[in-house]
């Protein structure tokens, strides 16, 4: 007797359901980890700038201009940001090949995708530095020195 009669489209959908699910799960966790990385990067920049709040107030009271202060902050944060982004780009190749071993239905992402993620992280770091320094540079030098 004939059993399990399905059209070709139904058989194809059944055969691809599991790989599509794995791809969707990997995409979800990848996007979620990117979101957590962005939040963490912003909080690290914010914490570092908050720790230097008093120093920036004193420098401002001594005559430093806002562009000079912003450049000083950028000069201190830039090496850490560039090192982290370079490590992320280099390790992403290893991590993607590691995932391909476990999930055979996916392929390694193109370099353009990895570069796009690194560019998003760089833009977030630059944006967080810009936003935090904007509020930091509005700080009154008199208020900073009055706290002492």
Question: Please, could you describe this protein's structure?
Answer:
The protein is mainly alpha-helical. Helix content is 83%, strand content 0%. It is elongated, with a radius of gyration of 24 Å.
Q: Sheet with the most strands?
A: none
Backbone CA Rg: 24 Å
Tell me, rounded to a whole number, the average pLDDT: 80
How many β-strand runs?
Answer: 0
What is the first-to-last residue Cα distance?
Answer: 92 Å
Total helices: the number is 5
Helix content: over 70%
User: SSE order in H/E notation?
Assistant: HHHHH
> Structural class, from secondary structure content?
mainly alpha
Low-confidence stretches: none
> Strand fraction band?
under 5%
Q: Describe the global form.
A: elongated
Could you give a short description of this structure?
The chain is an all-alpha fold. It is built from five helices and no strands.
List keywords for this structure.
5 helices; 148 residues; single chain
SSE arrangement:
Blueprint: H1 8-51, H2 53-61, H3 66-102, H4 111-137, H5 141-146
Helix pairs in contact: 1-4, 3-4
